[in-house]
């Protein structure tokens, strides 16, 4: 099972704008990180799960990692956003690992992100131990 990572979609105004940004790259989208994840080999075939408004809202499959001339690293992503069932996730700096067991499932055909709870409600119910 591949390992995944989470990252805040900090420049996205909405999930739609994140999708537009990803799809504007024909072959691959590049995210920059200061350090290569120690477990990067396990992440090939995994996904980067996007956090928007304190919830995981979608994922982009990871193609690989590539060092830049300035020493930073590119996270090479497929230029698509796969919607997932909304799951509360606290904001954090940088990225964090996410195991397959903890990753939310993809939305089924015909299921929309609107079918999921609003992130604020999901977060409060999770805090109370109800979801």
Summarize the structure.
The chain is α+β, with helices and mostly antiparallel strands. Helices cover 17% and strands 34% of the residues. The model has no long low-confidence stretch (mean pLDDT 90).
Low-confidence stretches: none
| Count of distinct structural domains | 1
What is the count of helical runs?
3
Mean pLDDT: 90
* Backbone CA Rg: 15 Å
Give a verbal description of the structure.
With 131 residues, this protein is α+β, with helices and mostly antiparallel strands. The chain has a single domain (4-127), classed as Archaeosine Trna-guanine Transglycosylase, Chain: A, domain 4 (Roll). 17% of the residues lie in helices and 34% in strands. It contains three helices and seven strands, in the order βαβαβββββα. It has helices at 15-23, 40-43, 119-127, and strands at 4-8, 29-33, 47-52, 55-67, 73-77, 82-88, 95-98. Strands 1, 2, 3, 4, 5, 6 and 7 form a seven-stranded mixed beta sheet that branches. It is globular, with a radius of gyration of 15 Å. The model has no long low-confidence stretch (mean pLDDT 90).
Index terms:
Archaeosine Trna-guanine Transglycosylase, Chain: A, domain 4; alpha+beta; seven-stranded mixed sheet; 131 residues; DUF1489 family protein; UCP032025
């Amino acid at each position: 099972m591949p390992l995944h990572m989470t990252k805040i979609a900090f420049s996205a105004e909405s999930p739609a704008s994140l999708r537009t940004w990803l799809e504007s790259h024909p072959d691959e989208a590049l995210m920059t990180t200061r350090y290569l994840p120690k477990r990067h080999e396990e992440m090939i075939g995994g996904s980067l799960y996007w956090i928007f408004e304190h919830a995981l809202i979608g994922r982009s499959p990871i193609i690989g990692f590539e060092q830049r001339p300035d020493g930073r690293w590119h996270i090479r992503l497929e230029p698509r956003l796969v919607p997932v069932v909304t799951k509360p996730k606290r904001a954090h700096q940088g990225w964090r690992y996410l195991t397959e067991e903890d990753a939310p499932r993809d939305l089924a055909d015909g299921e929309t992100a609107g079918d999921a709870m609003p992130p604020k409600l999901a977060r409060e119910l999770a805090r109370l131990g109800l979801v």
